Amino acid sequence: MLAADTGLPLAKTCALSLFVFAGGSQLAAVTLAGAGNPVAGVVTGLLLNTRLVAFGILAAPLVSQSRWRRLVGAQLVVDEPVMLAAEHEDPVDARAMFWFTGVLLFACWNLVTVLGAVAGDVLGDTRRIGLDGAFPAVFVALLAPRVREPAARRVAIGGACIALAATPLLPAGIPVLLAPLAVVLAGRLR
To answer: Would the pTM count as exceeding 0.90?
Structure first.
């Protein structure tokens, strides 16, 4: 729906879900492109997806069969399939969970992308139903499990403060790109 609201055609919206398949990155790209800053959308999406490098390492044994399975499996390396697979000690069960969850999530995500884009075209301005808060909500949902430790919470709060302070001064998307400075500052304070 956000993609439709920014004028992104259905074919491009669907291609984004098929080839990028990472919710936070997709929402960032669409939201920031709609705000007039597509470069910040791409950079933010790439930064958000850096977490998938660690997931890729965890998922490597789950997709270590044929080249074709590795290629398809790499596309399914997102938070949910990898984390659910990691809950299983038996490698056969872990592999089955990864593939089941990954394929199901991929299919549902792409189906809902089409439905949302069509609904967005029908509804017109989706801001009136509150979708402009979708990207921040998804970002907070991705961040929440990672801030269990006090040090991680301090870094997250520092990043939020940097982004909030920069928001009135800089174009859309740039404050989010500056937020990782909190990690650098936290390292310096140690």
So the answer is: no
Please state, for a pLDDT cut of 90, what percent of the chain lies above it.
13
Amino acid identity of residue 103, one-letter, is V
Residue 49 has, within 13 A of its CA and on its CB side, a CA count of: 19
Q: How far apart are CA 108 and CA 115, in angstroms?
A: 10
Cβ atoms of 183 and 148 within 8 Å: the answer is no
Tokens matching residue 127: 């801001």
CB burial of residue 1 (10 Å; 0-12, 13-18, 19+): buried
13-22, 71-80, 125-134: range with highest mean pLDDT: 71-80
Tokens representing residue 124 in the block? 């017109």
Per residue in 98-110, pLDDT tens? 999 999 999 999 9
For 135, other C-beta atoms within 10 Å of its C-beta total 22
**Cα gap 63→190, rounded to integer Å:** 39
Q: To the nearest whole number, what is the mean pLDDT of the chain?
A: 81
Cα–Cα distance measured from residue 186 to residue 183, given in angstroms and rounded to the nearest whole number: 5
Strand, helix or coil for residue 50: coil
Q: How many CA atoms lie within 13 A of 132 on its CB side?
A: 9
CA torsion angle for 115, 117, 122, 123 (degrees, to 10)?
A: 100
